[in-house]
Amino acid sequence: MSHCSSRALTLLSSVFGACGLLLVGIAVSTDYWLYMEEGTVSPQNQTTEVKMALHAGLWRVCFFAGREKGRCVASEYFLEPEINLVTENTENILKTVRTATPFPMVSLFLVFTAFVISNIGHIRPQRTILAFVSGIFFILSGLSLVVGLVLYISSINDEVMNRPSSSEQYFHYRYGWSFAFAASSFLLKEVLV
């Protein structure tokens, strides 16, 4: 009985580790962490006009409405003179979320290292120290990722709170599926240990 449950735990930890690695890898490499839309509201008939809509990741910003529709630019170059963002707060949001970028990258490196060490430990069960070391790497990876997620959320919330309110303008934002993948990866990594 204990041999079967040990084998099941080994398989389960490998599956969770692979899923955590895959999810954080997809999250880091895609650009759907945040959706933002801003525009104007006509006071006469309460209709809205979208001035700018974009989705942003850690590396790239893509516009899907407004003057820049269909254009994608690298994050460090989003302040090029020919790109017209509606408000300064939108620019500030895109600047401040970059502070969170290193943490998911470190998490990706740590979870990859943990996954490799864990699988070597499964292949050579006499080396029990590898399971302990891989557990430490999984925990560090999860902590790095959650710090990045908290920084990402707080930097957006800080800028949204500083937006001037106006009845003629609207601003909406929501987190995308890449962000959800990163959060799911954190949960998998912490359940693994």
Automatic annotation (TrEMBL):
Which superkingdom heads the taxonomic lineage of this protein's source?
Answer: Eukaryota
Question: InterPro entries in the record, alphabetically?
Answer: CACNG_subunit, PMP22/EMP/MP20/Claudin, VDCC_g7su, VDCC_gsu
Entries under PROSITE patterns matching the protein: PROKAR_LIPOPROTEIN
Where in or outside the cell is it found? Membrane
Please give the chief subcellular localization of this protein: membrane
Pfam families xref list: Claudin_2 (PF13903)
Name the UniProt key words of this record, in alphabetical order. Answer: Calcium, Calcium channel, Calcium transport, Ion channel, Ion transport, Membrane, Transmembrane, Transmembrane helix, Transport, Voltage-gated channel
Indicate how the chain sits in the lipid bilayer.
Multi-pass membrane protein
Keyword Signal found: no
Transmembrane segments in this chain: where? Answer: 99-117, 129-153, 173-192
The free-text function statement in the UniProt record for this protein reads:
Regulates the activity of L-type calcium channels that contain CACNA1C as pore-forming subunit. Regulates the trafficking and gating properties of AMPA-selective glutamate receptors (AMPARs). Promotes their targeting to the cell membrane and synapses and modulates their gating properties by slowing their rates of activation, deactivation and desensitization and by mediating their resensitization. Shows specificity only for GRIA1 and GRIA2.
* Family recorded in the similarity comment: Belongs to the PMP-22/EMP/MP20 family. CACNG subfamily.
Name the record gives this protein: Voltage-dependent calcium channel gamma-7 subunit
